# Entry
Amino acid sequence: MDLRIMGLESPLLSTLQHMMELSEDSDKSSSSINAPTRTYVRDTKAMASTPADVKEYPNSYVFVVDMPGLKSGDIKVQVEDDNVLLISGERKREEEKEGAKYLRMERRVGKFMRKFVLPENTNTDAISAVCQDGVLTVTVNKLPPPEPKKPRTIQVSIA
# Structure
């Protein structure tokens, strides 16, 4: 919109118009710069497609993730930065047999990943993972509660 057509030729208004035009141009050019990378999109889909249950017990936290059809070698359980539990892996597509073709393919294939920030009271040195019947169960033990500090008596000296 040109403000000069409406009879408004103030320097302030022309500066505002120029700024608005610049912001429109930068919006068009930055849309490709700000677009998420393929890696980010892939990792986001992998995290969204891996549902998990998290349970808290008096002495541990338990993470339960469905992993049908995967062998223990296809699953990786790691601790990052001393407080992030990372469960990842890859489900590979079955090799097609000669003469067979898919009519429908609904089961997800590809990489999967989940990250969980662990609470401060977890013992990251005591983590166990068991995959049985297509269900991965990761148990993270809690640290024992700190013992309450006993009051310390300070002797008062006479000056």
In short: The first strand starts at residue 52 and ends at 56. The beta strands are 52-56, 60-66, 75-80, 84-91, 110-117, 122-132, 135-142. Helices lie at 11-33, 38-48. The two ends are 86 Å apart (CA to CA).
